[in-house]
Design goal:
- With about 240 residues, this protein is an alpha/beta fold.
- The chain is built from 10 helices and 6 strands; from the N terminus they run βαβαβαβαβααααβαα.
- It has one domain (about 1-235).
- It has a 6-stranded mixed sheet, with helices on both faces.
- Strand 4, helix 4 (about 100-115) and strand 5 (about 115-120) form a beta-alpha-beta unit.
- The protein is globular, with a radius of gyration of 19 Å.
């Protein structure tokens, strides 16, 4: 499914200038492969990103589900290498959960060694949700995340006959988070956590999430990706 994303002002200006000279509109497709550990939670969230903003089109394919941390990375490599389509970005999305520290760290290092982007979280993907409301800096269990998300959402929604109950496969989490939460603060607070990482013992950093990096790309705020899109556009003239 093709997805059109928002691009920053500099990139939008470049498109406008090029189109003005040629007096025609042109779309640039950027191909994404996102391989997830979870079967529904992560795919449901990422599938909800804007479809028609700006001039850049993202064609996103999802795969994975119900596989282990290391297997997510291995499958991402396998799918990329066997595909006839040349992907501009390949992402592996997984959590620490109960996986052993060595396995978790090895998965991240293997991704890096094979040019796979890695949106990992410790302990759970739900940390990213919670950061839309609070700057969480202390460790939590998966059950504690569920309760914390429910509390934060219900406080924002106010008194309701039926309170919000968090379910992992809720297809409306993206809409809900962007209606009553703050994506910009989630990115900022996730970056602050990320800046604390030193060395390669990633499992030692809890709470931690790298999901913000993928989100920045999907909303057109990744400087690195935008520069690549611009270069691709110029070379494709």
């Amino acid at each position: 499914m093709a997805r059109t994303i928002k691009i920053d002002n500099a990139l939008q200006k470049r498109f406008s200038q090029k189109q003005g000279k040629k007096n025609k509109s042109r779309e640039l497709i950027t191909y994404f492969l996102i391989v997830c550990e979870g079967e529904k939670t992560e795919p449901n969230y990422f599938k909800c990103f804007p479809k028609q903003v700006g001039k850049a089109i993202y064609d996103i394919k999802f795969d994975g589900g119900g596989i282990s941390t290391l297997r997510v990375v291995e499958k991402a490599i396998e799918l990329r290498d066997k595909s006839m389509q040349k992907y501009d970005r390949v992402w592996a999305v997984f959590d620490r959960d109960s996986f052993k520290a060595d396995s978790f760290n090895s998965a991240i290092l293997k991704a890096r060694a094979n040019n796979i982007e890695c949106a990992w979280s410790n302990e759970a993907f739900e940390l990213w949700y919670l950061l839309h409301f609070h700057n969480r800096v202390t460790a939590m269990t998966r059950d504690e995340y569920k309760k914390a998300i429910e509390k934060a959402v219900n406080e924002k929604l106010g008194k309701k006959k039926e309170p919000f109950l968090y379910k992992k496969n809720n297809p409306l989490m993206y809409v809900l988070l962007n209606r009553i939460g703050r994506q910009d603060l989630a990115i900022k607070w996730a970056k602050d956590l990320s800046n604390k990482i030193e060395g390669q013992s990633f499992a030692d950093y809890n709470p931690q999430t790298q999901v913000f990096k993928l989100v920045e790309e999907l909303i057109g705020q990744s400087k690195e990706l935008n520069e690549e899109i611009t270069k691709k556009y110029d070379e494709g003239e």
